[in-house]
């Protein structure tokens, strides 16, 4: 086949990858001898390409990245580079002095016979050719050990999981959780050792386990926390290089998870992450089949189906099938992502009112899906800002604040003049729905505005924050803040145990002395001594503090 036709007929995904390799200057050591074009391409590891040419026609080709005669990105990149600028001279590889001329000779005899300088040159030449020999060996001689290890670990985890019951003892639950944490540590170790395949497979397995139905509250809390940990761990691993066989194992594992899980509430997030692992046409085919398999399941919720449709749209765009992607978008106009794209399109063309209609429809349909609702509200806020509709902009900001979005407050403050801000701030902070978010944005806002009056009222209801803000509230509200601090100290002493806790209480009492509340400090110490008579170590620390702040001279009444 003609070289130009072979290049033009190559799949789009292969072309994208080949162009990336050329841009990164990954191809090196090109040689051309007796119609045989050879090169070495660095793509996570070194791969060797061989192409037999005859009058600009490609007779055969192969690449060490796979054992099949497929036109991989490495081969295509070499063809593209050769078509642009062929070479005439032959580049001869430098051969190290310490070579294995006789393959039947004993390696020890060869190494013993080489002098020190030869050995150093030989080792350095290996290092220059193979920067990561352990990884190359694992990739070149991939065995079934990874599959066996994952299978055994999965069987053990499933056995422990099926043994869990709401009435099970703490030891049974601990055994299961400890095995999960052990597998997690193993995954981290494998990633550190650059065995990225096994690390990826382990994180996928752990994701599967924490996606199984929870057994009891402890199991629910564990799963809720670690499912996000495992998702985040997969992101950096997607950037690593995998051979064809390794990619196949990864996508087979993904398919197995999608088949086995009944609750697919978290699967769309996983599928979005795993999209980044696609590097070849086979990866794309495996992934696309899995995506369709999940979409056809009866247990997938409508919201998740919408996410899967948008994911399919992204895949079609990725391989250059823009028309098919647009058709998919036209057939599913109710998908929130497509609606959001429509609103952005109107916004980009300056059609603010048309965009606002779509946004408000999106807000209504979002319901209790907070992530989607917040996204729509932020867009509504940006449109209202452009329309200079301050009143409605403030109302949208209040809605975002009730959802815990502090950024909405800072965005609003930047757009309001200092002369107007105090009135706007009062409207926001007096809103009953904003006040309900007591332990979230409400506190951050009153601290940002240095509103000591409201902060004092807030701390009256939440005394645990007084140590953090006592210095800030004094001296304007010294009496009130000192009273709250004294009450907090006495309440906290009930759970204090050990020298460290006692010293912390003494530090809090010392604050009362520092801010002039000597009598209250003394009373607090005596109350603690009387209420907790058995805590002798606490008494000693408190009395030492009291003595250090007592009058040095005789008492003189004022």
Automatic annotation (TrEMBL):
Keywords: Metal-binding, Zinc, Zinc-finger. GO terms for molecular function: zinc ion binding. Residues 47-83 form the SWIM-type domain. This is SWIM-type domain-containing protein. It comes from Proteiniclasticum ruminis.
């Amino acid at each position: 086949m003609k070289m130009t036709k072979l290049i033009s007929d190559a799949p789009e995904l292969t072309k994208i990858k080949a162009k990336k390799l050329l841009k990164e200057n990954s191809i090196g050591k090109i040689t051309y001898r007796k119609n045989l074009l050879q090169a070495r391409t660095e793509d996570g590891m070194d791969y060797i390409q061989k192409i037999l040419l005859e009058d600009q026609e490609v007779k055969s080709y192969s690449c060490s990245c796979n054992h099949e005669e497929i036109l991989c990105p490495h081969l295509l990149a070499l063809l593209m580079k050769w078509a642009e600028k062929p070479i005439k001279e032959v580049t001869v590889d430098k051969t190290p002095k310490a070579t294995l001329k006789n393959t039947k000779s004993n390696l020890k005899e060869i190494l013993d016979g080489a002098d020190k300088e030869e050995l150093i040159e030989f080792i350095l030449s290996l290092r220059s050719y193979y920067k990561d020999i352990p990884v190359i060996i694992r990739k070149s001689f991939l065995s079934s050990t990874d599959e066996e290890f994952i299978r055994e670990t999965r069987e053990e985890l499933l056995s422990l999981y099926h043994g869990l019951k709401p009435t099970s003892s703490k030891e049974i639950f601990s055994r299961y959780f400890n095995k999960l944490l052990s597998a997690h540590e193993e995954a981290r170790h494998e990633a550190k050792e650059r065995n990225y395949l096994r690390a990826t497979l382990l994180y996928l397995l752990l994701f599967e386990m924490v996606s199984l139905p929870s057994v009891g509250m402890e199991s629910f809390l564990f799963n809720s926390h670690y499912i996000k940990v495992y998702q985040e761990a997969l992101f950096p691993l997607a950037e690593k290089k995998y051979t064809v066989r390794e990619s196949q194992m990864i996508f087979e594992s993904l398919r197995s998870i999608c088949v086995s899980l009944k609750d697919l509430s978290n699967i769309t997030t996983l599928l979005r992450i795993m999209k980044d692992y696609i590097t070849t046409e086979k990866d794309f085919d495996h992934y696309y089949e899995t995506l369709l398999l999940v979409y056809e399941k009866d247990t997938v919720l409508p919201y998740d189906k919408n996410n899967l449709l948008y994911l399919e749209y992204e895949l079609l765009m990725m391989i250059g099938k823009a028309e098919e992607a647009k058709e998919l978008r036209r057939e599913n106009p109710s998908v929130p992502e497509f609606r959001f794209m429509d609103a952005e399109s109107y916004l980009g063309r300056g059609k603010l009112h048309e965009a606002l209609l779509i946004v408000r429809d999106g807000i209504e349909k979002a319901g209790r899906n907070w992530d989607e609702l917040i996204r729509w509200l932020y867009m509504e806020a940006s449109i209202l800002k452009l329309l200079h509709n301050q009143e409605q902009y403030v109302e949208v900001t209040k809605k975002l604040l009730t959802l815990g979005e502090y950024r909405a407050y800072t965005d609003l403050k930047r757009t309001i003049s200092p002369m107007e801000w105090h009135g706007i701030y009062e409207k926001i902070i007096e809103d009953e729905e904003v006040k309900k978010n007591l332990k979230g944005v409400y506190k951050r806002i009153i601290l940002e505005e240095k509103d000591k009056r409201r902060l004092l009222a807030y701390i009256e209801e939440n005394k645990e924050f007084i140590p953090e803000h006592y210095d800030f509230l004094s001296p304007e509200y010294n009496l009130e803040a000192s009273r709250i601090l004294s009450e907090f100290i006495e309440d906290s002493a009930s759970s204090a145990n050990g020298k460290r806790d006692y010293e912390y209480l003494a530090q809090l009492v010392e604050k009362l002395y520092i801010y002039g509340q000597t009598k209250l400090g003394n009373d607090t110490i005596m109350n603690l001594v009387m209420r907790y008579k058995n805590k002798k170590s606490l008494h000693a620390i408190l009395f030492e503090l009291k003595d250090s702040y007592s009058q040095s001279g005789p008492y003189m009444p004022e």
